[in-house]
Amino acid sequence: MASSDALLPISAREEDPLLSSLLDGSRSDPNPETPRGRRPFKGLLAVSFGLLFIAFYVALIATHDGSRSHDAKLESDGTATTTSRARLAGVSEKSNDRLWKLSGDRKAAAFAWNNSMLSWQRTAFHFQPEQNWMNDPNGPLFYKGWYHFFYQYNPNAAVWGDIVWGHAVSKDLIHWVHLPLAMVADQWYDANGVWTGSATFLDDGSIVMLYTGSTDKSVQVQNLAYPEDPNDPLLLNWVKFSGNPVLVPPPGILPKDFRDPTTAWKTSEGKWRITIGSKLNRTGISLVYDTTDFKTFEKLDTLLHRVPNTGMWECVDFYPVSMTAANGLDTSVNGPNVKHIVKASMDDTRIDHYAVGTYFDSNGTWIPDDPTIDVGMKASLRYDYGKFYASKTFYDQNKGRRILWGWIGESDSEAADVQKGWSSLQGIPRTVVLDTKTGKNLVQWPVEETKSLRLSNKKFDIEVGPGKVVPVDVDSATQLDIEAEFEINKESLDKILGDTSVAAEAEEFSCQTSGGSTVRGALGPFGFSVLADEKLSEQTPVYFYVAKGKDSKLKTFFCTDASRSSYANDVVKPIYGSSVPVLKGEKLTMRILVDHSIVEAFGQGGRTCITSRVYPTKAIYGAAKLFLFNNAVDATVTASFKVWQMNSAFIHPYSEDAVRALSRN
Ligand code: DQQ
Q: Residue limits of the Beta-fructofuranosidase N-terminal domain (predicted)?
């Protein structure tokens, strides 16, 4: 591979060793692992844990003060205190601020953001609250003609803390009206936060919501809530069950390691079953409970699953996928031609990992099809190779599909978030199905309603020779939907495959560590540079890199390189990506959604997805451009693509008029 700084003029990129080690997922393990096969809940241990548990439960119920003292304790700049608050509370925090301060830029002053730059970062068609902090998606559902979206929300600041449930409704998952907060922290059992939870439809069509409360003593417990008026399609008011909490940490589980109940599914015996993420030492685990009424629960002796050395599992998701059909499955569906997905959000790395496997109804366990890529292992599959965390799916009975929501955090500093007054987005909701062609991975795709935002489009067929950069003539490049097919010219392919002097590189290549889009290989990289200024001094390339392997076969990688996305020094600018399966006869395809500070990229129909947050300082407003590039040394590439300008979504504050306007659409 050669490097070509001349082709794509850029400012030099500095590696951030601290960031690399975090993204890398390499971790040291201070605690000895629970030996394989040892059952931590059994035998003598269980007796002592049992006694401890009774004492703990009595203390938990007896010592709560029944009221909530809840002062906002944010520092004026919202940084250091917030970080430690989240960590102390036992949940994910935002750590970019610390990251850049500890990186090579630590002596430099933070970039001087002005209001015009910060205003541009707000998105036009992604879901976000009017202001302040948002994190995990919660309890998504479709009810009486409305999509409901709940989310972790801080009503008081643009940083994590004081968490309650925000709520919004939509007819199409694109246009939204914000509603009043669904649940606030007004009980001892959620005084330190109304944390993540999920919805279940009971057999009679009524809804129950299970969520984690962080109690007045910061113990993680599970609570039950339900709509006050089932006839209200907007589900405005929620009642918390008088007998809450319905579940407390079981023996052997630490008080801050028990959170995020899933949607329930039916067992063959007709009971409801849920799973809840936790950890035992460094082993990530998913506990399983059966219930008939959501008020009393029976804990299974077995775990849904466990993976050593993966740390705390947050926001576990568990659902069936069809091996044959393209539609989604309701959570309780099981049987032949059904596989089950386990997804866990790794608290240590902030990565959502999933695996495809087999579920056993009889004892509530699940095993991965391929144990070498089990949930949370370094090589395991990810929903998204960029910024995407604490995701949750739901079955949309309206359209017979399963939809995935993911929290897209910021990659800038907390100081900048405080200055702009908001933090975080939700990704465009994606349909998620098993890839029936490979049988090994999921495919994700923006919900079809996204197309309703498409305005004018332009179609292009462009042949790009090695080392060429071509401006793409679109009026404005800040809100785009791009669909493209690439074909490497046959002579180039034959030449490379037949030429033994061309070294194999597929085994060593990785988007993250192989130098990004300026490094020139025989057959790549090629793709688009989005959010680029005229001189390409800022740009975010989204590209394929095709590499020859030792077996002389080609392997394709799909990457996004944010390392030159901004002149600012106080943002994290990673190179993201992974390999992507390309089957015989398939062209290389990509789709990219650009919406101000977010770039979502879908490779090969959504087999590999990459979401990036980028914060250009020059390539904004009218100065944001789109380029096509081919940085390969040997290959000529033909790109056939369409670019749509994207409309802004209607995302309005709560009023009856706004709800009426949305119902008319
Ligand atoms: N966020 C919630 C927790 C969850 C974490 C708190 C994941 O319930 O584990 O805001 O981002």
A: 22-118
Dihedral angle sign, alpha carbons of residues 649, 654, 657, 661: positive
Provide the H-helix boundaries in 426-554.
490-498
Note the pLDDT tens digit of each residue in 566-603.
Answer: 999 999 999 999 999 999 999 999 999 999 999 999 99
Contact 569, 523 (CB under 8 A): no
Alpha-carbon dihedral sign for residues 99, 104, 107, 110: negative
pTM score, whole prediction: 0.88
Ligand 1 contacts CB of residue 152 (under 6 A): yes
Instruction: Please identify, by atom number, the ligand 1 atom nearest to the C-alpha of residue 314.
Output: 9
Task: Specify the pLDDT at position 48.
Answer: 44
Let me know: does 629 contact 526? Beta carbons within 8 Å.
yes
Q: Is 165 in the pocket of ligand 1 (CB under 6 A)?
A: no
> Ligand 1 in contact with 92 (CB < 6 A)?
yes
Distance CA 508, CA 505 (A): 6
Which is it for strands 608-613 and 554-561: parallel, antiparallel or unpaired? unpaired
Specify the DSSP element, H or E, that contains 224: strand 220-227
Strand 401-408 to strand 389-396: parallel, antiparallel, or no bridges (unpaired)? antiparallel
pLDDT band at 502 (very low <50, low <70, confident <90, very high): confident
Residue 439 · residue 445 · CB < 8 Å: no
- In ligand 1, the atom with minimum distance to the C-alpha of 197 is 8
Nearest to 464 by CA among 640, 636, 642: 636
Amino acid (one-letter) located at 630: N
Radius of gyration (C-alpha) of the chain in whole angstroms = 25
One DSSP character per residue, 515-545 reads: -GGGEE-SEEEEEEEEEE-TTSSS-EEEEEE
Neighbours of 180 (CB within 10 A): 11
pLDDT band at 468 (very low <50, low <70, confident <90, very high): very high
Residue 23 neighbours by CB distance under 10 Å = 18
Map out the domains of the chain with their CATH numbers: 134-446 (2.115.10.20), 455-646 (2.60.120.560)
The residue length of the chain stands at 665
By DSSP bridging, strand 625-630 and strand 523-532 are antiparallel
> Which of 5, 6, 180, 10 shows the shortest CA–CA distance to 619?
10
What is the C-alpha end-to-end distance of the chain, expressed in Å?
53
Contact yes or no for 409/598 (Cβ under 8 A)? no
Q: What are phi and psi of 14, to 5 degrees?
A: -105, 130
Mutate to test the pocket of ligand 1, among 92, 153, 254 (most ligand atoms within 8 A of CB): 92
What does the block give as tokens for 387?
């910024």
